[in-house]
Structures are given as C-alpha cells and as structure tokens.
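FIELD: query
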Amino acid sequence: MNIQELIQKTIYDLYTQDIGTSQIQLQKTKKEYKGHITLVVFPLLKISKKNPEQTALEIGNYLMGKESFISGFNVIKGFLNLTIAPAYWIGLLNEINTAPEYGTKKAGKEAPLVMIEYSSPNTNKPLHLGHIRNNLLGYGLSEIMKANGYNVVKTNIVNDRGIHICKSMLAWEKWGNGETPESSGKKGDHLIGDYYVKFDQEYKKELSELQSAGMSQKEAEEKSALMAEAREMLRKWEAGNPETIALWEMMNTWVYAGFNETYKALGVDFDKIYYESQTYIEGKKEVERGLQKGIFHRKEDGSVWANLTADGLDEKLLLRADGTSVYMTQDIGTAKLRFDDYPINKMIYVVGNEQNYHFQVLSILLDKLGFEFGKGLVHFSYGMVELPEGKMKSREGTVVDADDLIEEMISVAKETAKELGKLDGYSVEEINKVSRIVGLGALKYFILKVDPRKNMVFNPKESIDFNGNTGPFIQYTYARIQSVLRKYNETATSLSFTPDSKTPALQTQTILSEKEETLIQLLSDFPAIVKEAADNFSPAVIANYIYDLVKEYNQFYHDFSILREENEELKKFRLVLSQNVGRVIKTGFGLLGIDVPERM
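FIELD: result
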C-alpha cells in the first residue's frame, strides 16, 4: 500500500471520514529534520477538529501502532515527519528492479494524440545555436510526452517561401556565377546562407549611396532597386513563373540536404514535414472565406486585415496589397491541414518567446474562423539563447552555426577526455565514438537543464566540464556504474548484472544507511518526475533530477564499498541499487535525446 493510501485509511479509522488523496499533502522531509516523508497536517484540521500538533501526534501514534514499516515519527508544528523502515525501501527497490520500463508508460490505441511542432527553419540560412535549443526542446518534449502514455506526432514546418527566401535567390542569381554545393565544397544550407548575407551587404551599400545623395533612410528604403527586385521575384514566385520556380526548387534541394545532415548529427527527427509553399495556399483560401463572412476586411489598397481591437489587441495584416501572404496566413493554413490530417487532441508549438503575440493572435483568428481547436493551441514559449559575447544576427553573418558548434563540442570533448586520461587504452574508433557521445551530451544537457522559459547564455567551455552540473559528469557516473557491474560479472558465480537483468529479490532484513535509503527514495521519485516534466512542458525537470540522483550516488560511491563489501547480501543490495541508478540515468537521458557511454 502506498503511503498516501495508508494515510487516507488512517484518517477514516481515526475520524470516520473519507477524504480524497488530493487533500493528503506529502513532501520529502527537510534535511534538518529526522525522517523521510512529511505529512502537511493543516488541510486535515477541519476533519480532526483539533490543533495541528494534536492532529499530527494522533496520526503518528496510530501509524506506529498499525504499520510495521513506519519506524518512527516526530512533529514540528503542523508537520508530521515519518521515518520509514529499511524493509520498505528494500521492497521498493525490488519493485523498481523488476519493473520492465520503470518510470515510463506505453501509449494505448485510445491514448490522446499530441502533435508537437519544432525546428521550423527558413531555407535562406543554415541552422544555428537558436535552432539547436528549439530542436532539443521539441524532441525532448516529444519523448517525454510519449513516456507519459501519449501518442505523439513530431512535425516540422519549413518556411520555404517569402521575401527572405527571394533575397538569397536574387543574390545567387546576381553574384553566384553558377556556384553549387559540389563546386564550392560547402553544405547546401551554408552556401545559401552566404548569399542571404551577401544580399544584406549589397542592400546596405545601396542604402548608404542613396542617403549620401540626400535621401532620408525611409526614402532610400522605398527607392531601393535591389529590394524592389526581391519583391518582384516574390510576386513572380506566387504567380508560378517557371524560371523563378525552377531556381527556387534547385536552391531548396541544396538546403534540405544540408538540414538533414544537421538533424542526423543532433539526433532529432520528424514524423511529418509541412512546407509553407503548400500551406499558404490553404491559408489564403481561409482568409478569403473570412472576408466573405465579414470576419476580415479589405482596405483601399487591397490589403486584408483582421480587426482584433474588441479582443484587446490591434489590427493584424493577413494579405498584403499585392496579394502576397504573411506568416499568419500560412499558419492558419498549416493548422487547418494538420487537423485535417490527424485526430489531434493537443497541438503544441515549440517557438521562441518573441512570437508570443503571434500565437495569441493565431488562436483568436482560428476560433473566429470556426475551428474548434483554435482556443486549445499551446505555444511552448521558450527563451532566447545567447553567447557570452552577446546576441547573434543571421543577416549579418554573426550567428553560431549549428554544424560548427557540434564539431567544436566533439573536438573539445576529445581533447578534455584525453587530458584527464579517460580515453587511455582506447582504439581510434572508440575514442571518436565516446568523444561524439560526450560532446553532444555536453551540448544537449547544458541547454536542456535550463528552465525553457528563461533566456540563457551558452558557454561551450563550461558545458564540457567533467565536474559539476554537466552532461559529461553524469555520463562518467553512468560509465563508472557499468564498470562496477562488469567487474562483478567477471568474478561472479551466481548473479549476473546487465542493464535489464531481473535479479533475485533482496532480503528485507538488510540494514541500510541513510545514504542508501535516500538513493532509493530518489529512484522512487522518477515516475512522478517524468509526469511533472510533461505537465510543465519542461525537460529541465528531468535533467536536474538526474543530476541530483548522480550527485547523491557519487557521495554513496565515495563513502561505501561495493565490490569489497564482505557481507554478500549487502554487496548484492549495493549492486542492485547501482544498477537501477544507472538504468534511471540511461532512461532519463534517453528522454532528453542524450546517449550514455558504456565505457569512459
């Protein structure tokens, strides 16, 4: 019987009243007090009709007299601190050890379907550090929702049309001299990104010349021949001009090949990819329908707007005067197509917090258009990621490229591990494999341990440290546990420890230390942690839990002998405990998309 149910029964026996488990507030006992679990008594005073201390004493005495696994208690004002007997913790470890997929659930056929959109790249530039945070959060959230028993569809919307795409196309046409990924030796997305930067350089040069001739900045922008050419290219694209479409298809093919390489390196994937070049058409149809119904209105210049002042917002542009669409139009179309394609119960957009207003408007517009799902959209709004030296700007070419960062992390991991002697005796192939696991683990963990709602500064040097709250520190602990289990297996005659082995039940009379009890209690928290991460849309909940578990295990490893323990039952217990700490590390890191090395 779990402790919440036990207290529920105790309340009934003492006060003859049924209460729901929601009224039973349990928490870990604070370190300064003796005990494992604390019952907050205040919500029960209406039932007991006594003061907090009397109520806590009554419940504590009753539990001590009835339940053998309650070995002691103390009362601090309105808090009842319960001490749990070692037999309970050993029984709990036995349960954890025999649970096939401890901490996670599998989705049934009738489980709700959650669609999670992440990545959302533009085809005018390669993926950068900001995209890395987006992809890691989206992929991690997808795996966490799966682990909570949801069916999940991972989706990507590629922004493959618009004025910014035309800027890269026009720059390549003007200054590219037929350059290709093959002829330049560059990844396709990098090549196209270079021409996006080139356009911005030439545009600024033109504006400077016009302003030198006496124009204001606004006048120069209106008279820019280069920007006019880009707008004309967009108009031709939307009109289906064959030459423009052919150029667009060729350049996008280069970009997609580059994106796929980066996704593979990051270890993220998608179940369904949508393209704005297709969804904007559906969006324009919906805007036209909204016009006919009087939901939207057309201005004298031909542009179409939504008046949201009654909703406490302002007017929102949906179609430009020349008939071309904007992001909002495309997102309306994309949402409609998705709900046509899948029986979605919840739609989650993983998009930075600079788009909070955009998704507020999208939800309102979809609702006005009569879509039942409009109000239920979830914007998983996350903070920006910066470098120690400040913000990044794509058009100025000052972003941190995702591919470069991944390779740098792997290289730094290799050098750091070599310096610390952690790769001694490894073959070249093993060194490269471990360096990739550790480098990517450092990158992913450093980003995912931060509350996603907060802005963060990514520091590559800090992330690769083998001490402290880092991926490599946790990975090294996992590898250490596997080393202990391997050494035991080399000499063992009866028990065999592998990551998924089912060992014989431990004897409940084994005497445990406080440290060992704490570790089991931490392991028992894992299912609730996985649920909390899903409820709060926060991979950071799992990342920081795993760090706390590892920190506690390392103190245990330092203070207690495992393989040299003479008491065979105690040795067996510590091996089972270590094995399950390793299992939870691997499962938890797996939900974050992080691998763990078996040797290190």
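FIELD: remark
The chain has three domains: 3-84, 118-386, 402-591.
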